[in-house]
Amino acid sequence: MSRLLFLLGISFFSVASSWDVQKGKEADLINQHWIHGSLNCKTNQDPLIQVVSYNADTWILRQNKCIHYEAPFIFLFVGKEQSFLVDTGATTDEKLFPLRKVVDSILLANGVRRKLIVAHTHSHGDHVAADRQFKDRPDTEVVGSSWEEIRKYFSLSQPAPMSSMELGNRSITVLSIPGHDPTSLAFYDSQTNLFFTGDTFYPGRLYVRDWPAFKRSIKLILHVAQEKAVRQFIGNHIEMTNKNGIDYPVGSTFQPCEHALPMTLRELKELDRALDRLGDLPKRDVHDDFIIYPT
């Protein structure tokens, strides 16, 4: 059986049955087990999308690595008036990646029938691929992925790189953090006190395309994090192993010994100090929990 046919044979029920619902408490993201691919993807039996409930109003989704090696994380926030989906993953085909069906099933199971806003941490293809699944969804707004569309929707500018959006009893702070990509955004969630930092800060290779902008963005994240007493930062990928300074090769579809998803304030401060030490000369710099990787 081909890999494609096998994966198409995984039922939608298997996707939904992967939910790890934590009623009355927050999930332990440090020790959370994520689907991490297979040596032989033809025999992979993981759900197409793993769904973990962080709390009653917050979900973290991960794409199957055998569908796309990037295995990006996707985030769903529910407020009293609106729901907010951050990123749409790396695969367009809804048979291989039924993101809309999974999001709808989460919302319907929780009695949520209010407007859905779909936005992105940045414009790269592994974060926007399934946008088209939501284009004709009723009562849904998909924020464009160009900087002009993002700037206008979130009322952002470089002199004023922060704004906020209200979901109803839940405020999300939006930060413009260019450096990895001109359109990069971070999201601070007041309800969970989690900081969602996209591809700018995560356990992996921090690809830096604009060195001065990246350094400024890290300082902005650090400033807000200290002001809000943030303890955990959630990025969009895991590329590091659980051995200090060792990453999985690009294209890996099997990562059995992954680093934990959350990053800490200690690691963010370490990144900021390293960027200061490197000065104006971009340089690859390996750390226990991340790799600075100028492109």
Q: What order do the helices and strands come in, and which of them pair?
A:
Blueprint lengths: L2 H6 L3 H5 L32 E7 L2 E6 L9 E6 L3 E5 L12 H11 L5 E5 L5 H4 L11 E3 L4 H8 L7 E5 L4 E6 L8 E5 L4 E5 L6 E4 L2 H18 L3 E4 L26 E2 L1 H14 L6 E2 L4 E4 L1
Parallel strand pairs: 4-5, 5-6, 10-12, 11-15
Antiparallel strand pairs: 1-2, 2-3, 3-4, 7-8, 8-9, 9-10, 12-13, 14-15
Describe this structure in words.
By secondary structure, the protein is an alpha/beta fold. The protein has one domain: Metallo-beta-lactamase, Chain A (4-Layer Sandwich). The protein has helices spanning 3-8, 12-16, 99-109, 125-128, 147-154, 211-228, 265-278, and strands at residues 49-55, 58-63, 73-78, 82-86, 115-119, 140-142, 162-166, 171-176, 185-189, 194-198, 205-208, 232-235, 262-263, 285-286, 291-294. The strands form three sheets. The chain has a six-stranded mixed β-sheet with strand order 1-2-3-4-5-6, covered by helices on one side. Strands 7-8-9-10-12-13 form a six-stranded mixed β-sheet. A three-stranded mixed β-sheet has the order 11-15-14, with no helix packed on it. Strand 14 (285-286) and strand 15 form a beta hairpin. Helix 6 packs antiparallel against helix 7. The radius of gyration is 18 Å and the shape is globular. The N and C termini lie far apart (39 Å).
